[in-house]
Amino acid sequence: MERAAGKAAxxxxxxxxxxxxxSVVAYRGGRAIEAHxxxxxxxxxxxxxxxxxxxxxxxxxxxxxxxxxxxxxxxxKVSLLPSSHAPEFVRQLAQFAxxxxxxxxQARCDIDLARFRYPRELGERKPRRGAVAALRSTSPYDVPQxxxxxxxxxxxxxxxxxxxxxxxxxxxxxxRCVRDGALRLGLLDGRAHTLIGTVPAQHxxxxxxxxxxxxxxxxxxxAERPFYxxxxxxxIAAAPRPRALVTTPIHLRTLLAAGIDLPPLDLIVSATxxxxxxxxxxxxxxxxxRLLEIYGSTETGQIATRRTxxxxxxxxxxxxxxxxxxxxxxxxxxxxxxxTPMCDVIEITGEDEFLLHGRTADVVNIAGKRSSxxxxxxxxxxxxxxxxxAFFLRGGGERDGGxxxxxxxxAAVVAPGLDANTLVEHLRRRIDPVFLPRPLLMVDRLPRNAxxxxxxxALQALCEGHSRGHGSPKGSS
Length: 477
Fold this sequence. Notes:
alpha/beta, Rossmann fold, GMP Synthetase, Chain A, domain 3, 11-stranded mixed β-sheet, 6-stranded mixed β-sheet
C-alpha cells in the first residue's frame, strides 16, 4: 500500500513534513487533528478504495479531500482534477480514464461514474485526551515516502477551445512548487500557521495553497470552505494565529463591502483573477495585514508572487525562469515538468522579475482603437457603488490574438442602487465610447464558478437569456 519504502531517500518526498505525531495538520469543526490521526485515516481509506487507478475526488470537506488525496498517493492512484464537474466534462473524463471512480462525501451525488462513499467514521471520532496520548505512544510515527516521479494528479484545462487538455503533475514537482511557495509567502518561520481557504481543494490553486502547502510546510489547514462574508469572518476568528486567508479577488471585494467587523489576519493570499492595487490596499488596511498575490496557471502551477499594494513587479519562484522564442514567452526550470508556453503578455524586468500586461487574447481592437478586457473591467469595477462587473464578447466575434473587426462587447454588472444609464455615463468618462458595452446588463450576481472565475459561455448565456426576454438581469442600457 505505502509506496517506495525501499527507494533511495533522494528519490522520494514525504507525504507530510510535520516532525511530531502531535503536530496539528488540520482543524475541523473546532477540533485539532494531529499528524498521527491524519495518517491513520489515510491508511484506512487507502485499504478500502476500489481498484481503479484514477480517482475523481469531489469531497466538499477539505479534510476528507485531503485524506482522499493522501490515500491515493499511498496506493499509487492518480487524482483527476478537471475544471468542471459538468456532465460533459465527466463524460470526457470517463473516456480519458475508463477505470475512474468518484470519491464523494455527499449522501446524494449525481456524477455519472462509479461512486465510492467516503467512510463517515474517518475524522469524525473525538478521542479523549488520555486516548490520544496512548495512541501516540503505541503507534509508530511512520510517514509514507512517495516517489518523486509518481504521478500524483492529472489537471485539465477548461476546454473552451475544444477537448480539455490533461497535464500530469508528479509528486516531486508538486512538492517543490509548494515548498518554494511557502518560502516566498513567509510560512517557514518556525511558527504553526493556520490556512483558511475560500477556494475548493479540487482547483489547482486550492490544492496547492491550502492542502499541499500545509502538508509540505508543517502548517495546518481549516477543513471548512466558507462562502458568505459572515461565515468567512467566523472561520478566520475561530482559527488559531498566526493565520492566513487563501482567497480570490471577488471574495475580498465581497468581504470588504459587507460592512462587518473584520478579524485580524497575518497574511492574505489571492489568485485566480487580476487584483487591483486599490483593492489590495483596502484589504491590507481592513485586515491589518499584508497581501501577496500569486501568479500561475493550470499548465505551470504557481510560479510567482508580488505584494500588489506596493508593487506591480512579480518575483519568480526559485529556479523558474522566463525566455522568449519567436515572440512567444516560455516558463521553464524549477518545478516545471517542461518548457511551457505562456498565454500572457509579459515584460521581463530582471533576472527573476517581470511585469504582467494581460492575456495574449485579452486585447480588444475596435475601429482602429485598442484596449483590453483587464483595463475595461478595472474601469467598470472602480465606479463607486459597483460590487462586481465584467466585459465580455457577446458571441460571433473573431479571436486571433485578441478581438478584432466588428466585435460586440457587452458587460454585466452588480451595482445595487445604480441604474444602467448612470453607469454608462460613468463609463463615458473613463473609456473611449467605441468600447461602451451594448448591452450593459444589471444583474444580482455574476455567474462565477467556485474559484471566482467567469466562464465566457456562462456570460454569453446570460446575455442570450436577456435578449430573449428572460433570465436574471434586472435591466440594461
